[in-house]
Amino acid sequence: MEAYDLVVRGGTVVTASDTIKADIGIRDGRIIAVAETITTGGETFDARGLLVMPGGIDSHVHLAQPGAGGVMLADDFETGTRSAVAGGNTTLIPFALQRRGESLRHAVAAYHSEAEGKSYCDYGFHLIITDPTPSVIGQELPSLVNDGYSSFKVFMTYDDMVLNDRQLLDVFECAKECSALVMVHCEGYDAIRFLTERLERAGKTAPYYHAASRPQVVEREATHRAISHAELIDVPIMIVHVSGREPMEQIRWAQQRGLKVFAETCPQYVALTAEDLKGLNMDESGGKYVCSPPPRDEANWEAIWEGLKGGVFSTFSSDHSPFMYEGPTGKLNPRARTSFRWVPNGIPGVETRLPILFSRGVVGGRISVNEFVALTSTNHAKMYGLYPRKGTIAPGVDADLVVWDPNREVTITQGLMHHGPDYTPYEGQKVTGWPVATFVRGTCVFAHGDVVGPLGHGGFLKRTTTKYPAAEWQSTTRRGAAVGEGEALGQ
Ligand code: URP
Ligand code: ZN
Ligand code: ZN
């Protein structure tokens, strides 16, 4: 018997803390050896001239999730994970959504049926809490956390999801008691409704006005309110999809005061602007970019980079929430044509997350390649109870790898995508850096542009809770490498 099933040879191995030339020996889905040279072995993958990094972990994706008004997402587990592995990802954490009046256990069981046997990569589930009844708070959540669903998302907006302040406090207290992590969507419901109705009365109904109905002040206020509630309860929270300077500064202020406030940002906040929502000429094609919070402007991109470099953000996720553009359930559905308020919220991005951050961040000289790994993989594993099984390269851990060409120049087009929707919001954007191959527990699932399966290889991951000693929480959750510590690519 060969010592290894597979040896990935000659690559530059990058983790959140180190960059070394090494071979990686894999057996039974796990990394057995990381060594300067491995002479024995079965199959070989030639990684000379390429980077070998922990596979991307995208901790914010929506797949097979029922939307408002019966509109379905354009990706189920098969197409969503196909797109994910083609983008260099090896683990996703999508959301099991509790509909109001529904038990969480029921929502979770139904979501397992969606995923079982239909995933190319591994996955865990967050829970979306829309109806925090006494039995959800008192029984269901604690027992689900115990069973490996150790994070949940709550919303401060959206008609069918919004929780009031009292409900937020109840969920936060429950999270504290069961050591779960609460993810918070921070946009203020009443202010959005007020602005939406005012815009509609003025006849301002084109997709562009989606951005005007959700200005940063609305996000800043909700961010501050969520932080205040978390401080009251003394519970860690994760503020998701932060879009610009104003909420970023609230989070930085909270962190500087020693509060356990973590934050995530996404590609749309460094690569799209509200101008994109105008479409070609204030037309409906602007609907392709409707997501919440909306993209801001280039000055706000710089604020997001400031937060990425300065450790305000622990994770860079896609918030992949794909809808068709054309068709009866797409962004252009008949109701959506009457007002921006009915355009389904969300954009696809799981396949383009890594190239956009690598290109604009690493190649653009803003972050080191080690920071890239921390922001796209390691910190997701740490925050969501998967580390060290996932998110690093070391003997004993799952052989989840992306082999990456740091020099490949690609123009993003819909034709290159493996996702379900009929467009990419990043059409025409040029990037440098692209995945060559993706390995999930040692099995090649994507190579040289093709998803090679096998479908159903991905399995469910029970997650543990995030446990950081109080004094260390900040340093351990900041990106794996301190700024400047990691070796920057090409330096
Ligand atoms: O517009 C977005 N982000 N849609 C997905 C749902 C959410 O709020 O994350
Ligand atoms: Zn959200
Ligand atoms: Zn989302």
UniProtKB/TrEMBL annotation:
Belongs to the metallo-dependent hydrolases superfamily. Hydantoinase/dihydropyrimidinase family. GO terms for molecular function: hydrolase activity, acting on carbon-nitrogen (but not peptide) bonds, in cyclic amides; metal ion binding. Catalyzes the stereospecific hydrolysis of the cyclic amide bond of D-hydantoin derivatives. Its cofactor is Zn(2+). The modification N6-carboxylysine is found at residue 153. It holds the Pfam family Amidohydro_1. It comes from Rhodopseudomonas palustris. Keywords: Hydrolase, Metal-binding, Phosphoprotein. Carbamylation allows a single lysine to coordinate two divalent metal cations. The keyword Membrane does not apply. Residues 51-443 form the Amidohydrolase-related domain. GO terms for cellular component: cytosol. InterPro entries: Amidohydro-rel, Hydantoinase/dihydroPyrase, Metal-dep_hydrolase_composite, Metal_Hydrolase, Metallo-dep_Hydrolases_sf. This is D-hydantoinase.
